[in-house]
Amino acid sequence: MDQKKIDRINALARKSKAEGLTEAERKEQALLREEFLANIRRNLRAQLDQIDMVAPDGSVENLGEKYGRAKAN
């Protein structure tokens, strides 16, 4: 997500607290928030997919392959 969209989210939040939003602005804010949250979820999933666990027997297992990617497909 680019900085312009984040700035717009913040501007709408400030305006909401100060004077309220129009219906169009509420819809825009909801769409921007959903995009922002989807981006966060995608980034977190990518990080979690890179985690390797070492079992007591010394074997290495990638948790993204074991859990994350199997559920996504």
List the helices and strands and how they pair.
Elements: H1 3-18, H2 23-48, E1 52-54, E2 60-62, H3 63-72
Antiparallel strand pairs: 1-2
Question: Could you characterize what this model shows?
Answer:
With 73 residues, the protein is mainly alpha-helical. The chain has one domain. Helix content is 71%, strand content 8%. The protein is built from three helices and two strands. It has helices at residues 3-18, 23-48, 63-72, and strands at residues 52-54, 60-62. A two-stranded antiparallel ribbon has the order 1-2. Helix 1 (3-18) crosses helix 2. It is rod-shaped, with a radius of gyration of 19 Å. It starts with a helix and ends with a helix. The model has no long low-confidence stretch (mean pLDDT 89).
Short description:
71% of the residues lie in helices and 8% in strands.
Q: How many structural domains does the protein architecture include?
A: 1
Shape: rod-shaped
**How many individual β-strands?**
2
The average pLDDT value, as a whole number, equals: 89
Query: Sheet with the most strands?
Result: 2 strands, antiparallel
- How many angstroms does the end-to-end distance come to? 25 Å
Order of helices and strands: HHEEH
Features:
single chain, 73 residues, mainly alpha, two-stranded antiparallel ribbon, 71% helix, rod-shaped
